[in-house]
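Lecture 7 notes: from sequence to structure.
We start with the chain below.
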Amino acid sequence: MIDLKLSRREFNKKASLLFVGSKLELNFENKEFPVVRTTQRDRKFNDVIVEDTILRIKSKCADKELAWLFENCFPNTLDTTVNYSLKNNKPDTFVITGDINAMWLRDSTAQVWPYLEISGNSNPLQDLILGVINRQSDCILIDPYANAFNDGPGKSEWVTDHTDMKPELHERKWEIDSLCYTIRLAYHFWKKTGRVDAFSEKWKQSALAIIKTFKEQQRLEDKGPYRFGRTTSWSTDTVPGNGYGNITKPNGMIHSVFRPSDDATQYPFLIPSNLFAVTSLIQLAEIFTYIYKDRPNSKKCADLADEIKGAIQKFGIYKHLKFGEIYAMEVDGFGNALFQDDANVPNLLSLPYLGCLNSNNKIYQNTRKFILSEYNPYYFNGKAAEGIGSPHTLRDQIWPMSIIMRAITSNNDDEILKQLRFLKATHANTGFMHESFDKDDSFKFTRKWFAWANTLFGELILNIERERPHLLKVVL
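Predicted structure tokens for the same chain:
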């Protein structure tokens, strides 16, 4: 019998959340670490390599709660969010974010990314990831400016947005990183598996659409074809400047009307996303050279990467009053800059993780010190934890993703262990990561089903096993 007069905190201590598809049930088994993972019969995708990985990590983790979190979080994307099939005899995978029934180009890449590392001996797992690559190509060819898609034509809740909506679109917020993530997945799929079947003629056409979109959004000649507006009282959900964003002085960087958080940029030259674009274009140049034997388009990518990189060096680095030379998060080309970071990836913190910079880069280290300090307005330090938040979740909300990314990009054992302790202490007895939680009370959280954060946690633990296995022997 459950006492309905229990406080929410006491209730959560007694109850655990059990994922069954997209539904949540309560499991009141009296166990130290109750079963909260979706039951096998209800999982969307099963693979023996994934199960073997879970057993291996559990055997190595001295901290049983950390092992339990890995068991729940690492397979969460496969358990609950993927829909795999063959389409025209080719793998096709639609990936929802969790509690939102739509596929983001960014999230879908990030959600399957950790499985790429272990997919070498699993053709089914490779085919699932190939299905994501194939679906992403289809999405880009529908609209390279859209960030999120329906599974076929449907009616989005954002169908009345003041932009060129199509039936296949869930949302049409232009974000540079959406296209970068698709290149990242295809490139590393090739490098990890040796397979080149991702690089079809359709994929090439989607890559050409990416280059075209990047060049349009440099806005060197005109504002380009993209505009966005939304009838809303939420200021960051619509765009100033008659739908084009705040005024800029074009300089070679790409305009990003929205951030990875899906919030509108203040200054449209979003530095982390432009650095990500440089990395992605270099990878795309290699694909054009070695896969398609297309030297002209390879050179076009390399030249564009150099142009963007030069503009970042000239307009994206500022001397901070305390930390010296750092990267601004956003600039406008006129000399105005926004000094903060946002928990969503790509952000300034994640640049080494995305292959944009070496973690020992002096400007990155200065920037890192800034964003992990009180000088970053979205760095919150409370009773529950400390970490980076986002205007997307307003004030005093820390994102587990930022804690995970701090650990992934750290070269310091003590710093990594501190982040693991925060993650262990703030899952609110659910066994899963969340979008954000209150800095003073982790039981006040947003998004109980956020697959990207779950699989990113799994990726962190796999990284630790590979690079710092001694840390798994620590009881936190």
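Points to note: The longest strand covers residues 82-87. Residues 8-473 form a domain with the Glycosyltransferase fold (CATH 1.50.10.10).
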